[in-house]
Structures are given as C-alpha cells and as structure tokens.
Amino acid sequence: MRFDDPLFWRAGAVSTILVMLCVLAMLTVDSLAAIHQGGSHVPPYTVVNRHIDYVFDAGRGIDAPVIGGAQPLFGKVLDEQAAAAMMAKGKLVIQSRACMDCHTFYGNGAYYGPDLTKAWLDPDWEAWQSITGASTREDAMAMFLMDPEKYATWTRKMPNMHLSLDEAHAVVAYLKWTSAVDTNGFPPNFGHVHTDH
Predict the structure, then answer these.
(1) Is residue 133 part of a domain?
(2) pLDDT of the residue at 29
(3) What is the structure's pLDDT at 163?
(4) 12: Cβ–Cβ under 8 A, 6 or more apart, which residues?
(5) DSSP code of 115?
(6) In CATH, what number is assigned to the domain containing residue 91?
(7) What is the pLDDT of residues 46-94, one digit of tens each?
(8) Closest among 99, 85, 81 to 159, alpha carbons compared
(9) Do 86 and 31 sit in the same domain of this protein?
C-alpha cells in the first residue's frame, strides 16, 4: 500500500465520512427519542397534574427535576388531550406576545427579564402569593401575568400584555411543564443563587 497514492487518501476520506454519517444518524435518533414530549428528558404534558421539584442528582452531578405525587394545576386534573391543548395555547400566547424579546427559554431569547425555563420552581412565588393574595402558586402567577404593572417590584418592569384568565392559565401550565423538562442542569445554579431582598 502506497501512502503517496491519491486513491488511498480518497478511500480513507470516504470511509471516514460514511462512518461519521452513521454515528451522526445514531446520535440523532437517540437525541430525538430523548427530547420529544414523553421522551426520557421531556415528560408528557400531563406532568402538570403532578408535583415538580428540582434537586441535586449526585450521580449526574447536576440539579434535575423530580416528578412527585398528584398536584393538579388550578385544582383540576387534565387528561392528555386537555393538557396538549393547554400547552399549545400557552406556547401560542408566549409566541404572540413576543415574550422572548425580554425573556429566555432554554437559553434562547433576550436577557432583559428572567430566564423562564424553570420559572415554576422559583421559590419567590411563595412571596408572590402574599403580594397577590393568591392561595396557590399558580393563581399568583396568573394574577401577576394578567396585571404585572399592579405587582411590579423590580426596576425592570414587565409591560401589561393584556392576557385573559384563560391565556394566563395556559402560560402558567406551559411554564410548569417546561420546569419538568430535564435540561441537564440548565440553567446553572438555579435555586442556589441567593440575593438580598
């Protein structure tokens, strides 16, 4: 075998490309299985009927969502069809109001407002229950979304997007679902950064 023969190098390049294409195809199939709704990292939409927590997974060395017992959203259990409709509406509201012009989801978007990837899990919503007079986290979130100017507490204020109650409920459902997605520890240090209020 001669190393100065161009056919040797061409055959090597073609073989490498074919092997890498096979590896890429296998990784793509594996990733798609993990990241679609109901996959290993993305729970079904009906997860909004469950308690969601975020704890450190020592085996993986990252924080990860933990799905717990029953915790119906807004006091009612959603079946698969109703949950899917709620997610579609929530996503549509978020897109139609251009929320990503100020916020990020999964690291995509703008950085003017907070990242909303794990917004449902933000411990500050407990304080917002007192501020809004709501009895639950989801009610406090919906009340804030419907009238953020009334509950403004930061120097960066969220504009009123004029959400209806149904739209606010759909956005809250979508935020609860996104908080249950295993993002491999993203955003980093979520829940560990303490600020003085």
Answers:
(1) yes
(2) 84
(3) 97
(4) none
(5) B
(6) 1.10.760.10
(7) 999 999 999 999 999 999 999 999 999 999 999 999 999 999 999 999 9
(8) 99
(9) no
Contact 130, 121 (CB under 8 A): no
Indicate the residue type of 24: L
Residue 131's φ and ψ, nearest 5 degrees, are -65, -45
Cα–Cα distance for residue pair 49/46, rounded to 1 Å: 6
Cβ–Cβ contacts within 10 Å for residue 42, how many? 18
> According to the model, what pLDDT value does residue 34 have?
72
Nearest residue to 74 (alpha-carbon basis) of 193, 185, 168: 168
Residues 153, 123: one domain? yes
Within the chain, which residues score under 70 in pLDDT?
A: 1, 191-197
Burial class (CB in 10 A: 0-12, 13-18, 19+), 108: exposed
Residue 147 lies in a domain: yes
Tokens 């960066």 found at: 156
Residues 6+ apart with CB under 8 A from 171: 90, 93, 94, 142, 145, 163
Residue 167 resides in a domain? yes
Beta bridge partners of 105: 108
- CA dihedral for 119, 142, 168, 34, sign (positive or negative): positive
Residues 4, 52 share a domain: no
Burial class (CB in 10 A: 0-12, 13-18, 19+), 6: exposed
Is 6 inside any structural domain?
yes
Place of tokens 């907070």: 114
**Structural domain range at position 14:** 1-35
Give this prediction's pTM.
Answer: 0.82
